[in-house]
Here is the input.
Amino acid sequence: MATLSPPLHTQAIALWRSQQQWHRSLERTTCQLKHAGRLQARYRGLEPLYDDGYQTVKNLDYYYESLGELVEHDSGPPRWFCPVDAGSPIEDAPLMLYLPGVDGMGMGLFMHHKALGRIFELRCMHVPFHDRTPFEDLVTMVEDVVRKENATSPNKPIYLLGNSFGGCLALAVAARNPHIDLILVLVNPATSYENSGIQQLLSFFSLFSDQACMAITALLNYNIDNEAHMAVSSMINGKHPLAALSRMTNNMSSFLKHSNILDKIPEDTLKWKMKLIKRAASYANYRLQSVQAEVLLLASCGDKLLPSKAEADRLQKLLPKCTIYFFDKHGHSLLLEYGVHVASIIKCTDLYRHSRRYHRVFDYIPPSATELKEVDKATRDLRFRTCPAMYSTLEDGTVVRGLAGVPQDGPVLLVGNHMLLGIELISLAAEFLRLKGVVVRGIAHPLLFPDKKRAWSEGHDFFDFLNLWGGVPMMYKSIYELLAAGEFVLLYPGGHREALHCKGEEHRLFWPSQAEFVRLAAQFNATIVPFGVVGEDDLLELLCTFEDIRNAPFGKEMMEAYSDHLKLREDVDHEVFFPGLYMKIPGRFYYQFGKPIPTKDKQDILTDKQAANDLYMHVKSEVERIISNLLEKRVEDKYRSLIPRMLYQAARGPTCEVPAFDP
Here is the structure.
């Protein structure tokens, strides 16, 4: 679990206390954001919850049918093609080159065409089965495109998505062009070919025809364990058992149904392909020390063709900028299996960018409808336990259920209180997406943006959630850029002091004395919306806290050694330390957003310290009033407890909205 950050860094305080430096900074940044901000407000043409088309392909029939047509009628040299079903990319989309496995067809990405085609200019490499181009010439072919694109747009990154054999190709190009800004996405790269059992396996079956050997290899690509796992998961998630079983059997039978493809493949194809992949692995391994590109490595732990998990560990030691995503129940043909959302993984790892340096404001892409479903799946238990009830306040002061009282257009600054561990954040962000189609950009503690080098792809964790929802580490420059871009910004002035509070401090505010956020809001005519949230005391019980540990023998020294480098606020004697707790029989979370406070006619707060402080105290008092009101009103909610809610939904369906108190 985690929490959003406190509002002030020590260096930020010094900067803001200097009026002269402040105005110079405003002038410079305003010029930079005048155009970029408007662009960001539309996310380069993508709306929140856009349709990324992921998993719209039901089975592998399309893949094998296309493969059969290419094998029978295809000829000519290697070339590039743009998938028609990928559609048109967003404005200023970076280039992605897909480098296929040793089959060379370029169709192995078909399940991801639409999702990747929305955010990349996607081109796929195609090498006909009849072609016998040497590996070095294939490297030159990719290199020519990379160098030409780099000459045209030297400040934009170029993505190489290499699958198996294509991973060797991507590494070779990166090694030969260390000065070009390349980002490699390697899927079970074949650099481990010499350590695999493929050669021994094929020599054992050498008495059979090439077609029989290729059929055996293709079947090893297929992971029956993952298909069974996905079928069971589908049934757990509410799909009919026959529908889940049908998809599994369809995928299993697709290869067998189209096995006549093997009869159309030239006889010497297998021997040539094995020679080609051996050369590719040797070439890439010899040059690994020259690779300077960022690398995202997707490794299947259930790969029966290559030792992909062990190879991922080896490559990470040799490549200076390598991040690994392990897939526990998947086989070698990772891109043809369900549950592998490549576009989403790239976004979660902060590798999606439009220039040489990643910028959390301007490079942000909103979550797709698929990603919201994935987050809902990961947080279903929390939503079931807390059943959040949202209220908002109209301009005439009327409190209503829902978010109708929150402005539809930004810039908006949402200012409120943290509950324990910031547990209210997920429901808040998800409800804004569902009810208003708005992404809430949270200002978060830097601790929540770890440089993860290894992850297991078993659903999104809290850190992935922050990246997908556009979280930004605490810096006032970031708030400035977000408001300039017309965003909805979520700020917790109490930061980690509220989220990691002690026993008896539930629903208390720990705000600093500085009033900088109201000046920021006024600078952009932003609307401030105070809000309060209660309910942690119905869900969590503290066992030990910061105070308990600090009062223990040597506790203070231990905590200082642990968290001095994480402290953001000098005005509180409270280190970043996660408390011990246990879950209670859950109650309910209640959110209320107060009456919007426009700053358009309050420009005096930019120069008048007292006016700024008055507005700051007004916002704080509104949050305290809302918290008190929710604590009083929730006792009227007959569905506050879990059992009544379960009975209500059992009678009306699990997706129905559970009533709450009358505002």
Residues 43 and 365 are 6 Å apart (CA to CA). DSSP finds 24 helices and 19 strands in the chain.
